[in-house]
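Feature request, filed as a ticket because there's no other form

It would be nice if the structure record came with a short human-readable summary line next to the tokens. Right now we just get the raw output. Example of a typical job, pasted below so the devs can see what we mean:
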Amino acid sequence: MKEKERERLEKLKEEEKKLYDNNIKYICGIDEAGRGPLAGPVVVGAVILPENSFIEGINDSKKISEKKREKLYEQIVNEAIAYSVGIVDQKKIDEINILNATKLGVKIAIDGLKQKPDIIMIDALNNLDTAGIPYISVIKGDAKNYCISAASIIAKVTRDRIMKQWDEIFPIYGFAKHKGYGTAEHIKQIKEHGPCMLHRKTFIKNFYK
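Raw output as currently delivered:
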């Protein structure tokens, strides 16, 4: 690993190091993917990595190519003490709204961890049900903290894989390409063909009745 990359990762881990230095052992990073799309689930990733983890290239998932995310995903899950995902589908999103659906995804992800965390670091969410586990909410945490960056990669890769599977069932919308986000082409296909079961009705109501 090049010295510059090592320094970048050490900076990402600064807040975690303070926790480790206070005898906190299991730090869980949490982040979501899919709050903004017009279709598909919101996916929350949760991961506990070892204190000595230094996976080269870990960063905010939005700053990494799809190919690199896939590679990092495998490294993260292979190295993780525990990891989990919480998936909340489009029907539930329409029912309880995207913010509450994301919070539900957080609860599902935490409940799915085989190792209970001592503390959680999460990207910009508050008023959460974490089963009594203390948490730190970090604005833009996916770009600032190592464990949250790792969780963002788990969430993004998991969601992208789900959308690729749906693309095989509903190829006309191009889910494999835009992953359900509101691109001009995606909106055009909704207007021409109507929505499918994967679309969030509350998200498309402004341009499709």
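Something like this underneath would help us a lot:
Residues 160 and 179 are 6 Å apart (CA to CA).
The longest strand covers residues 27-33.
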